[in-house]
Amino acid sequence: MKYLYSRLRATRRSRRGVTLVEVMVAASILSISILAFVGAFQYISKSIRVSRARMLAVNLAQEKIENLKNNAYYKVQLTTTSAVNNDFSPPVYYDTVNYPLETITIGGINFLRGVYVSMTYPDENQIIWSTGADYPDTGLKWIEVIVMWKEGNVWKKLSLNNVYENTVVNPLTANVKGRATLDGSVAIDGVVVTVLENPDWTDTAGTNGSYNLAAQPGAYSLRASSAGYYDATVADVSLTTGTSVTVNFQLQAIATGSVSGNIWLNTGLVISQVVTATSTEVGECGTKSVEYIELFNPTTYAINIGVTGGAKAHKVNYYDEDGGADNKTDAQFDFIHVATYVPAGRYYLISNASFFFISDGWINADAHYYDAGCAFNNYLSVGEAGTVELVRAADNVVVDTLGWADDDDNAPYKEGTQIPDAGGGFCPDGPGDGNQFVRISSPATAISTYGRAYDSNNNKVDFNYPAMTCIAWASAAEHYFYWAPTNSTTTAKPVITGKPAIGADITAADLLGPATRAYTVNKVVSYGAVGNQNVPYAYFQLNGVSTGTWSVLLASGAYRETIDDVVVDVAAETSIPNAATSPVWRTANHIGVSMDTQTTGGYVTGVVKAGNGTALSNINVLAGGSSKITGSNGRYFAEVSTGTVILIVNPNNSNSAYVENIETLTVGEGEVVTANVTLIQGGIFQGYITTDGNSILPNIMVTASQGGVEYGSGTSDSSGNFYIRNLTTGTYVVAPVMDPMDTYSPLSLSSAVVQGQTVFIGTFTITGATGKLTGTITKGGARVTTGALILASTATLPASPVAIVASSAPAQSVIYGANSKADGTYEIEVRGSTVTKYNLSVYVPVLAGAGVTISTITYSNVEIHAATSTSKNLVLP
């Protein structure tokens, strides 16, 4: 027994177990593996969700396209009003009237489904291009379905496109050709000949002036146009199938003159004068050393400076050649602001004295840094190089700088070339007592007469200054300066210059729309101790401006100025502004244009004419929301915002003798877009749609056509009336657009359009219009999203879908069918009736263990009325 026990103990000792460390290592490895799987699972799950969402989006898009193409071609309405979703690049556009945006929830995903329908045409290379809704029917409609959804916080989209064809089209079987010449002799190449009734029918004349274009048969007006020539128009050109008509054009050159002038920019305050020291009387304190800085406002509006101890709109800093403590910031000046702003055309005086005597008179400072008692802060160093800097506080942008040198140091900062030191060798260098730096008013006029505004960004050129020797310009006995300082209370000075607007763009809103740019012209000027200098200014001469009275636009960067009522004579030069322009010149006989108004917009201009080329006056023009009326010359000129601009000429046929014209333009910042418009004579058809002679029937489309070609359409409104607008004069056949199963009387009406009038064409009675049955399909309380077949018939429907055999189908009762949508809804269209009731059967395939079975339910005595939508939810057990 003892032996067995000992063997057992020995055996147990020889079996080694798993240590705690080994258990922990194994657990760690297992945990890492599990975590790796879990980490990968989220990506697998996300991939599945993304794939599922995209698959559902494809199904939704395909479903909508099939649904639309199940309708008659004419019932697929073109998109005329759309909305934009800017969550995508490029943006997504979709219809908001005919096919409103749908919200569909499937599998917990919210989808948005939009539709956009446009007219298209194939070019000579059979490439299909999209056109506007007002383009003549080509027999091809472009259908685009866009499905949008979110994945997390990111928008996703899927779009499917398709083309719906109508084989009944009218090809271009007529032809017109000819030559464009100058006065009947010299050929003009590049002349554009256009059929006014359809601008897409056009051709450009070659080197011998010949053109050749195709069109549909009919009567048209043709226009020939080319830059530098007056348009030529030939009306009542009759074109017939298989024939070629010759129409020659004789163009007349447009007489021209020119417009010229100088251009200046005045965008803000400038430093107009600096005196570092002058010994003069300061009230009861006796003679003191006074220093001052003068600012000038060359704009047409007041400019804020600042409030004592408060917010600052502008700051003044001083930099000394020695730097450090000799520099003074605006905060260190600690200005006391007596005046808080600078009126237009006036000065602003900053001094170390609140008032002082100068040039035989006392003057008050608008802002000062005067110390208590008779102690004066002399911050501007005498006899040293320095800089005065003017800064816009909002963004710390330096708006002006004046820098001067002494005999051995340069200005810390400057514009262009600093004011030099003349030196003397035996006197203090730099500006001395009584020296002054004064900005000139103009390259050719006195400093005291006009506002000191000239600024070429070159200190040496822009300022009048003394030779910096020991000879002061001021007399200590009389305290007299050549150019006395001024403050904000003095009379405003006329501004005749500013910053030369080199490179500014100039154009005229005339028949030709020429353009040019201002260029630099130097005037040699000698003033004060400066000697001869080349003083630049911006000059322009706009040639090729057609004779007449026009507007001239001048633009430089973000600044614009328009001079109206500019009269241009043949071979004559007109300087602007002048006494007859609007605005007139700021000072008599001064032709400088000053720009101080900032805008971020552009301009649209053009001429409105009739089909015969006659200018139309008093025509309303809407350009980007701006309303204008054409003058006697038919011209309009409007300022618009940048981007896409909708131009509507004669909106809503406000002049009933002509049709409305709509164009889409793209306008860039500072850009002038020319859009000449020809209005076509026309009138309006009015009619009525009813079901029984009295009851109103809305939403029925009616077309007006000639020779089977549609030229206009309208839809009956809530009153049953329809209007077909923008029809040119002529005789048309008017008929409703109905489904083949519909019946209506009469089949068509014929009438002539009368210019400027609304003609009541008659009444259409729709007696067999279709109706719709809509609703949801549920099984077991849940919507059927896998697809269901819905059949409707006046006959009895079987338990299983009926087999349709072509040979026997014509003798059987009509069966209407439709498939349910992915969101569990359905829509079926049948011939509406208030007498006949329908049987309705629903068939839903169900997967079972043994295969697929069909679950069905039948409803009887279902009423579906004409031109209405009846709601009925279908429930399967």
Can you describe this structure?
There is one protein chain. It is built from four helices and 66 strands. By secondary structure, it is mainly beta. The longest helix is centred in the first third of the chain and has 50 residues, at 20-69. The radius of gyration is 42 Å and the shape is flat.
CATH topology grouping of the domain at 499-678:
Immunoglobulin-like
| Fraction of residues in helix | under 10%
Count of helical segments?
4
C-alpha end-to-end distance: 80 Å
Strand order of the largest sheet: 22-27-24-19-18-30-31
Assembly form of the protein = single chain
Q: Averaging pLDDT over every residue, what do you get?
A: 84
Any idea what the CATH architecture of the domain at 499-678 is?
Answer: Sandwich
| Secondary structure: number of strands | 66
Report the C-alpha radius of gyration, rounded: 42 Å
Question: What fraction strand?
Answer: over 45%
Largest beta-sheet details? 7 strands, mixed
General shape: flat
CATH-defined superfamily of the domain at 499-678: Immunoglobulins
Structural class of the helix and strand makeup?
mainly beta
Regarding CATH, which class of the domain at 499-678?
Answer: Mainly Beta
Low-confidence stretches: 1-8, 468-480
Structure keywords:
single chain; 877 residues; mainly beta; Immunoglobulin-like; 7-stranded mixed beta sheet; 6-stranded mixed beta sheet; flat; disordered N terminus
Please summarize what this structure is.
With 877 residues, this protein is mainly beta.
